[in-house]
Amino acid sequence: MHAAPTGVVVLTDRRVARGALVDVVAGAVGGGVRWVVLREKDLPRADRLALAVDLRAILAEAGGTLVVAGPDPLDGDAVHLPAAGPYPPPAVGLVGRSCHDTAELARLTTEDYVTLSPVHETRTKPGHGPALRPDGLRKLIAVSPAPVLALGGIETPAQVTACVEAGAAGVAVLGAIMRADDPRETATTLGRAFQEAATHLVTSPARPGERPHETGLRPTVTTEGSSLTARSGHGRPQPSTATTGEGKQ
Predict the structure, then answer these.
(1) Percent over 70 (pLDDT), the chain
(2) Cys-Cys link to 77, which of 93, 204, 230, 242 (CB 3.0-4.6 A)?
(3) CA angle, 40 as apex, 6 and 25 as ends, to 5°?
(4) Residue 9: is its pLDDT beyond 90?
(5) CATH class of 7-232
(6) Residues 103-136, buried b or exposed e (16+ Cβ, 10 A)?
């Protein structure tokens, strides 16, 4: 079983990428990204499989992991599922799921991580929301039984920092990398923001009367530009309540 994703996680979208998708991903990996989620669900399976092979080769050289959106792992062992299903998750090495509210979080069983979205409005899915904002993200993370990747409209170091401070184990980005003039530089910048925020949270003492930080983030030794900067320590308690939320994607 793989460890759950942390740091900067890239979601692909060849339709908005500034260059060939494999080149954009290679740039992001050069900037420290170690987790990539292959979307491109409109492609025929054979074409998508060929793309998965190419992306896995790029990630393998850096010790990274390709996660495939949908229940078909495309000859791999890591998938990211939609909130709608399937349930139970397929028996593969790593399973993530998209969630948007407490009701969807309460349905989780053996998933290794979740994304919570949208944190901010996003150009990729205009009108999708309403946005959680950091406060809404923090509230959902508090009841999530699995480590959380913040997703949706995260494009700046300040937004990355806010997500980490809300308790996110990582940030999932699409447009910030796909549309970047220099994916490597953007990945490095966002990865550095994540590392600095995660390190600050686990090293700064709590103020008088304040509970210690409980983000589940533990800084690790990293190479320059690496996004593998934290490890989630979340347990798997089930949320005590489930309410219907908003913001399905």
Answers:
(1) 78
(2) 93
(3) 50
(4) yes
(5) alpha beta
(6) ebbbebeebbbbbbbbbbebebeeebbebbebeb
